[in-house]
């Protein structure tokens, strides 16, 4: 038995199309397009590629993309002033400051300076708190995209055993909160976890987000489990996930590939969050059940 390959690229294309159908009525009601501001500091090659594809996807969905490219040696005050200007700009519904920032900048201070109601990345502590307490806010794009794929595979997730490998603020922690909200029994594993293979073997759902190439072995996977691989590791042999794909696909029920799995979902959900933000800010109703 070989696992179903979860086509994140196709799911993301469908989601972007559903977003685009709601952008048109939004524009008619609000008199403007939803706007996403993306701030890139420095010239990191991978970040430049991501920012370019975010801008393209934003425009293709009928939204406005405001791109701010700043030199790597910019100071904290200048970056904070840009965030303040974007907070005050009525045409901007979403603000994304591409991470990581150069080491001399305080990323946490920048995240906390973003208006939580424009924080379409869902990284502001107010949004983390809203997620943890079940209040409406913004959920980080990558874990929300993973949840969409999981719902597509399983329908309901209630009662399933889930393990999240990784405890970052960006993926692991919000992923665990979302799975808990879906009534999964959630284990969060990390670098100090004892007997990781045993934790993974017990899980119906495995979300791998540690950034270690092929850490999760096929022999650890429970037969029929669903495996979501968030890892994007650049190696000499190309892009590799946190899961040994060939080993895991032989035992899993369903698995995301890298690339073409979670990555494209991240950008589609960013557009989703921007549309939702625009609707909330302008008092235009958005059908979130389609998104
Ligand atoms: N404030 C902030 N928000 C982010 O959401 C954010 C960020 N900073 N910094 C960098 C990471 C990374 N990220 C990805 C987005 C799309 C793909 C993606 O589309 N990947 C494709 C192509 C992969 C490739 O070829 O490079 C795939 O997996 O199929 C991957 C990774 C968003 N990030």
UniProtKB/TrEMBL annotation:
Reaction it catalyzes: (6R)-5,10-methenyltetrahydrofolate + H2O = (6R)-10-formyltetrahydrofolate + H(+); (6R)-5,10-methylene-5,6,7,8-tetrahydrofolate + NADP(+) = (6R)-5,10-methenyltetrahydrofolate + NADPH
UniProt xrefs under SUPFAM superfamilies: Aminoacid dehydrogenase-like, N-terminal domain, NAD(P)-binding Rossmann-fold domains
Protein name: Bifunctional protein FolD
CDD domains for the chain: NAD_bind_m-THF_DH_Cyclohyd (cd01080)
GO BP terms in the entry: L-histidine biosynthetic process; methionine biosynthetic process; purine nucleotide biosynthetic process; tetrahydrofolate interconversion
Function text: Catalyzes the oxidation of 5,10-methylenetetrahydrofolate to 5,10-methenyltetrahydrofolate and then the hydrolysis of 5,10-methenyltetrahydrofolate to 10-formyltetrahydrofolate.
Assembly: Homodimer.
Keywords attached to this entry: Amino-acid biosynthesis, Histidine biosynthesis, Hydrolase, Methionine biosynthesis, Multifunctional enzyme, NADP, One-carbon metabolism, Oxidoreductase, Purine biosynthesis
Span of the signal peptide: none
Lineage: Bacteria, Pseudomonadati, Pseudomonadota, Alphaproteobacteria, Sphingomonadales
Single Gene Ontology MF annotation: methenyltetrahydrofolate cyclohydrolase activity
Pathway assigned to this chain's UniProt record: One-carbon metabolism; tetrahydrofolate interconversion
Highest taxon in the source lineage: Bacteria
EC number(s) per entry: 1.5.1.5, 3.5.4.9
Domain Tetrahydrofolate dehydrogenase/cyclohydrolase NAD(P)-binding: 140-279
Family: Belongs to the tetrahydrofolate dehydrogenase/cyclohydrolase family.
Residues that coordinate or bind NADP(+): 166-168, 232
């Amino acid at each position: 038995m070989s696992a179903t390959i979860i086509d994140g690229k196709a799911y993301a294309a469908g989601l972007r199309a559903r977003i685009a159908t709601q952008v048109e009525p939004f524009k008619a009601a609000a008199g403007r397009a939803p706007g996403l501001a993306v701030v890139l500091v420095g010239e990191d090659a991978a970040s430049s590629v991501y920012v370019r594809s975010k801008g393209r996807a934003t425009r293709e969905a009928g939204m406005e993309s405001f791109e701010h490219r700043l030199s790597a040696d910019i100071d904290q005050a200048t970056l904070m002033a840009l965030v303040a200007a974007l907070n005050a700009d009525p045409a901007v519904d979403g603000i994304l400051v591409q991470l990581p920032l150069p080491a001399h900048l305080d990323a946490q201070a920048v995240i906390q300076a973003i208006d939580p109601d424009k924080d379409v990345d869902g990284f502001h502590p107010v949004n983390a708190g809203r997620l943890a307490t079940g209040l409406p806010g913004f959920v980080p794009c990558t874990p929300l995209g993973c949840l969409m794929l999981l719902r597509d595979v399983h329908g309901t997730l209630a009662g399933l055993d889930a393990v999240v490998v990784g405890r970052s603020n960006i993926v692991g922690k919000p992923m665990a909160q979302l799975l808990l909200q879906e009534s999964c029994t959630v284990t969060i594993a990390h670098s100090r976890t004892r007997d990781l293979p045993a934790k993974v073997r017990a899980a119906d759902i495995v979300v791998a987000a540690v950034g270690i190439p092929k850490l999760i072995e096929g022999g650890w996977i429970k037969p029929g489990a669903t495996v979501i691989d968030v890892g994007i590791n650049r190696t000499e042999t190309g892009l590799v996930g946190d899961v040994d794909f060939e080993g895991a696909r032989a035992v899993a029920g369903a698995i995301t590939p890298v690339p073409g799995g979670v990555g494209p979902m991240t950008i589609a959900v960013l557009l989703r969050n921007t549309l939702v933000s625009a609707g909330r800010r302008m008092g235009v109703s958005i059908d979130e059940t389609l998104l």
